[in-house]
Design brief:
Radius of gyration: 25 Å
Structural class: mainly alpha
Strand order of the largest sheet: 2-1-3
Helix content: 55-70%
Shape: globular
Oligomer: single chain
Number of helices: 22
Largest sheet: 3 strands, antiparallel
């Protein structure tokens, strides 16, 4: 055959089939490369949709992100007051101009009041094209189920990157199993199936965290890491503290020499500024946009609206103590670690506490997250400490809050225990810290251990000083923000799902969160009277 023949044959072929064939081939190759992610997405979507039940077919009772997107499409930031039908709309910010100063509204509502969504608005940006089609009626519940299934698939993709980039030595099945643990063995499960602004943000934050981690490992793609970081922060502001991960990866990536690397950076930071430049370029567009929006609405670049809540139980605390204060520590520790289910004898039933439930119940896998597989005996010590803490919590139940002092906000019915309960809890948390420190000092510890633990610490501590415990929840929902990092610790610890201890704790975690998915009744059920 002459050399011209292939060219002639190609020229004779219709243009359409060639393009169609090329696209079809590319699609098949993509599907083959990401077949596990696709299977996880489809499978999780089906299960989440089934557990969502009647919610899946209806918009939730708190579609704040939908309303914000509709306001943007109408050319304004403020929410149409006519769509806020309730006398005391839940968690909406209301601004009343008093002598030109933005001030929190007080009853009664005035026609001149301006209403805003009080939450970071990136989820609204994601919903924009769908709200353009469906308007105010966009179903945020089914939308959230799709995002939740995608988040599980993205988390698996991140674990796959760790396998390829860090040599974790895990199999595809093991990483897929851990992604499913995130989806069904943590508080992510009950948050994924219900819509509502508080839970929708948590779920989307997990997916964006996975994308951020994929690009931040080894500071490999600074610009994309910065972009996804800004998306995550503008979905859940506590994720601002996860910037620690990229900073450590950019400044001190080498295991065993981090102190020297940190010193070298601070002595001459110009040598390692290049990754931060890319990170800043990626993060800046959304960050600047958010700051301008905050300033135009509330007169502050850092204010998303919580200081302007309309008739909210947290307003007195915010006015008196601020958004973050040591005063909030005990109530948050109680909600996160000490609160137990409520046992009723007439009729006999076990109910979750609306203030939350101990992570030692909803995530018993915590015991594996502070010790590596090579120190399995220490894990049993951590489990014993968790069990003893729960026992002491039942022995020293919640005490009545102190009497109200004039001029001081009343205390909520949480965070009041005898000293014995606090001593045991701090002892348990101290043991966790000691075990983690021993792991860090182990020469065989994986390279990513320090960045992951540092990021966890940076997220957990400020959260425990926040004014809100996450009331009306099955478990301590704010922990969902850093749950992906906790699951990554299972990878770094070398734990295998086929181990009897791991299987037992996974089963307990899934069982507890199955209860949350089936039994939790939140704001949507309250306003609709669902039983």
């Amino acid at each position: 055959m002459s050399k011209a023949a292939p060219t002639e044959a190609k020229a004779a072929a219709p243009a359409g089939p060639v393009h169609g064939g090329t696209f079809s081939l590319a699609l098949r190759l993509w599907a083959q490369a990401y077949r596990v992610e696709i299977l996880l997405f489809v499978g999780c979507f089906v299960v989440f949709a089934m557990f969502s039940g009647q919610r899946f077919l209806r918009q939730s009772g708190a579609p704040h992100f939908v309303y914000q997107a509709k306001a943007w499409l109408d050319g304004r930031q403020s929410i149409d007051q006519d769509v806020l039908e309730a006398e005391y709309p839940e968690d909406w910010a209301c601004v009343r101009s008093v002598n030109g100063v933005p001030t929190r509204c007080t009853p009664p509502r005035l026609a001149s009041d301006t209403w805003y969504s009080s939450f970071p608005a990136f989820p609204s940006a994601v919903m924009l094209p769908f709200v353009a089609i469906h308007g105010y009626q966009l179903n945020d519940t089914s939308f959230g189920v799709i995002i939740a299934a995608l988040a599980v698939a993205l988390f698996y993709s991140t674990l796959r990157l760790f396998r390829e980039h860090e040599g974790t030595g895990r199999t595809i099945v093991e990483d897929a199993g851990l992604a499913l643990v995130l989806g069904f063995g943590t508080l992510f499960f009950y948050a994924a199936i219900r819509g509502e602004v508080w839970f929708s943000a948590e779920v989307m934050g997990v997916g964006l965290t996975a994308l951020y981690l994929r690009n931040a490992v080894g500071a490999r793609r600074p610009m994309l890491a910065g972009l996804f970081y800004s998306m995550a922060v503008l979905t859940r502001t506590p994720l601002f503290f996860t910037g620690v991960f990229f900073a450590l990866e950019a400044i001190a990536p080498d295991k065993g020499h981090r102190v020297e690397q940190l010193k070298a950076f601070f002595n001459d930071p110009r040598k390692k500024l290049e990754p931060f430049k890319g990170f800043a370029i990626g993060a800046a567009p959304l960050a600047v946009t958010a700051m301008v929006m905050n300033w135009s609405r509330f007169g502050s670049i850092t204010e998303f609206g919580h200081r302007f809540f309309y008739v909210n139980r947290v307003n007195l605390d915010i006015d008196f103590y601020g958004l973050f204060n040591l005063h909030y520590l005990l109530r948050n520790l109680d909600a996160a670690f000490l609160t137990l289910p409520q046992l009723s004898t007439s009729p006999l039933r076990l109910a979750y506490n609306p203030w939350g439930m101990s992570l030692f119940i909803t995530l018993p896998l915590l015991a594996l997250m502070v010790t590596p597989r090579t120190k399995e005996k220490l894990t049993y010590g951590a489990l014993a400490a968790m069990a003893f803490t729960l026992f002491v919590s039942s022995v020293f139940p919640e005490l009545p809050p102190p009497p109200v002092v004039p001029g001081v906000p009343p205390e909520p019915p949480i965070g009041h225990r005898d000293a014995g309960a606090w001593v045991v809890l701090f002892g348990c948390l101290g043991l966790f810290g000691y075990l983690a420190w021993q792991w860090v000092k182990d020469p065989s510890a994986p390279r990513l251990l320090v960045p992951v633990l540092g990021t966890l610490l940076a997220c957990v501590v400020p959260g425990l000083l926040y004014q809100n415990t996450g009331y009306a929840q099955f478990g301590f929902r704010f922990s969902i923000d850093y749950t992906p990092y906790l699951v990554v610790l299972l990878v770094l610890g070398g734990w295998r799902l086929r181990q009897p201890l791991v299987l037992a704790l996974v089963a307990l975690s899934v069982a507890a969160n199955f209860w949350g998915a089936v039994g939790f009744r939140g704001y949507t059920e309250l306003i609709r009277g669902w039983q």
